[in-house]
Amino acid sequence: MTVTGAGRPTHDSARSQELARGLQRDLAKDLDGEVQFDDYTRQLFARDASMYAITPLGVVFPRHADDVAAAVAAAAAHGVSVVPRGAGTSLAGQTVGPGLVLDLSRHMNRIVELDAGSGTALVEPGVVQDQLNRAASPWGLMFGPDTSTSNRATIGGMIGNNSAGSGSVRHGMTIDHVRELDVVLSDASRIRLDRVDEAERARRATRPTLEGALHRELPEIVRANASAIAEGFPAHWRRACGYRLDRLAREDSFFDLAKFVVGSEGTLAVATGALVDLVPRPSRTVIAVGHFTSVAGAIDATQDALACDPAAVELMDRTILDLSRRKIEYAALGDLLNGEPEALLFVSFSGDDEDELLARLKRLTTLWSRHGHGYHTLRAVTPAQQSSLLKVRKAGLGLLMAASEGTRRPLAFVEDTAVDPVHLGDYTRRFKEVLDRHGMTAGFYGHCSVGCLHIRPFLDLADPADVVKMRGVAVEIKDLVAEYGGVNSSEHGDGLARSEFNREIFGDRLYEAMRQVKKLFDPGDVLNPGKIVDAQPMTENLRDAALPPAGPLRTRLSFEVVGKGAGSGPASADGTGAMRAAADRCMNIGLCRKAGSGTMCPSYMATRKEEDSTRGRAAALVKALSEPDPRAALGDERLHEVLDLCLMCKACKSECPLGVDMATLKSEALSHHHDRHGVPLRSRLFGSIRLLNRLGSATAPLSNLPGRSALLRRLMDRTVGIAPARPLPVFVRHNLSRWFRRRRPAGHAVTQGTVTYLADSFTTFTEPDIGRAAIRLLERAGWDVRLESGVCCGRSSLSKGLVDDAKDKARHLADTLSTSTEAGSPVVGCEPSCLMTLRDEHLSLLPDDPAVKDIAGRVRQVEELLVEAIDDGRLRPREASWLAGRTLVYHGHCHQKAEVGTGATVALLSRIPGVSVVELDAGCCGMAGSFGFESEHYDVSMTVGGDRLFPAIEAEPPETVVVATGVSCRQQIFHGTARDAWHPVQLLWEAVASG
Fold this sequence. Notes:
- By secondary structure, the protein is an alpha/beta fold.
- 44% of the residues lie in helices and 13% in strands.
């Protein structure tokens, strides 16, 4: 096998397979961590967040530094390169390559020591930035560089990249915060890099090792190229390009190899540990958000902002603002804005003296007013006022990516330039002239405070003409940057996108000195070759250009709905590739790898495995759907191992900025798996859950006996895989349907018309009190309630891949509701998973059915109708109910959060007199319908619940009332915490009912 630069390996298949087997065998023998060479794992690590894709030979998951050294040694012995990788969110292609990928994030993620006294932290490379900041927060400390990807970016990746972020005007770059590095060199030796005086450097230089050679020969390279170093580096300080010989030349008395390798993109050494400096965390932040009629106007206002000593100055253009309004996750920003700004400028002031910060904010607004900058300034002083602003600002990249249409995407190739902010206005105008001349549109956002704008032109790299156009623009922008003394790579690094231009940027002498550095550190070209020096053209290894045409596949679900305008077309058998296009919307930005906030992705939060993230599953599906026979590939068992732990929570549909809907993709994939392998008995049982629950209710209390018998539970485990530790639902004989048929008329005046209450397949038979409360409240509010209790929505069938069955149920329910209810009358329910199915999955199942479209448009949350009734005075909760004075802790259902948000539920709870409502940010409960009942999934289910939900509830005093809208959530909360959870309508009924 021959590896040349960053390109794809060239080899004959038999030789390649022999090499892979030999390397895999040696790695498995020498490493404690996992070693994976299967095709699907290799596909998962073929991409990062860039426009590139290179399939590696294999992937290892080191557990410690000895594993890293063993992997480097084995790879070198077999003539294979090594690609170190953190979160895989690199935008320039630094973490893809044809050799052996080292995933340093899965296991090497410990904070070894945090010394508040010295303001330092000793961390492994897989520690995530937010993880370190949470650990440092109690001591009033944080890591200085503040990237927008802080919830998944690893410290090791930041070191490899020399990351910066929004606060770099104050805190500089990662290079400014690294004290020591423990590394593995290309010869597999382990050493510590640090700052030493001349005497210690000379002592180390005497060692007959690679470490000795570094301390001996690197100073010679610096001395021999002193003039090139002084003249060749760009003038602007914010640099994430080349090897930092300027740092070595800066200090005559000291020699700091730790800082020197920062930003080297894994080409000189593999970091296994880092001692980093921490900085004081400001206790207060205030933000001014300037509204402007143009991007140019916002940039022109930057100098006034810099005059007020800000912590950050961030730009966001209209493109991103409009995209944020379409996403539930970010829509709150729109309510805060004044008018329709073409650009916003976020100016943050941080510190401990609030009066001083407010004075600076006031000075800024005065300067902007005096100089005619902008038409409105929003002041965000409290954390509550700032939350939606900061969420959208950090999501700029993802939101811009959401504007992708098929393979036409906003691409990162000229997005990392920076110039002195004094020149930013002129530079940006000329930049736009280049784009206009080439007929390109682009999104603008970034860090005006340091002259860095992330400008991403829209291109289709599956079109050869656009590839040519891309390189032409890259050359023009590279030359334009040089005119202003700026840098081509200011925080995203060189990688595959910009390394080819480094000889021109630095000049021949300095570039050759950098090549000498690479040769000194890595004479065998083992470590991430083809980055920074000796790179291939930027147009090689493009992911979209390399993807083969999608094979023909008839899908059961419509991915025109899933794609949301992605250009994927309708489901068909003519090879349009709609399903693949839906999966390939993923651009690997890695938000699904976050932890500690939001819901996506619960299985990744539990396992920390790439294949258990949304992007991992998307990559696996793209591979299967790119095979000549995608229908057969969808039956592959390894593919379904990757899909298995998807809880189908749908969080990715709302939290993923690109809206990759893995729940729907998994349903479709499961259906094809069933076509090839048959439908398991357990799947048939869960798909028939309404029938089972109806039978359980009809035979109660006898039907509840199996749940109390250890022998029967063990039998259920062995025969159908129902976890014996999981409590079974308790059936109620007097279910909701029986109650509704036998009750006396309510006697309330009907003033609002008819509403249909959907009797779901769960609470109807196990928690009928919920439905009774909802119906009584609706009737008191003036509604004539019709109960729909005879038809299943198909939600359970969909979750098990029984798509044809779900389609039949959807059609039956839609026809029933359409013909038996008044036109335009609302349809409500209390179980979000069932109710949301009518407005989401039914449209994917039957996109052209007029009854389905009609009913989908009539679905409303019962909370909405009840809030309206309270506000109109038709419902009057009592002031003195037992709830007065209590705290209500509310956990929202995942499908509700994904489809409509929790605003209506929170509003309803807040209208109960005397209560305090706290909405938990506790992710997914982990139950996910049948998932938590299944023996092989039980442990993961409990791990998900135990991550944030269980601790949050257990921290509450006994008098706190726990609230959850989902039946699965209530089951899981009781199982995990022994606390009963109420449905919101039950609590409102408690407050409304007399006595």
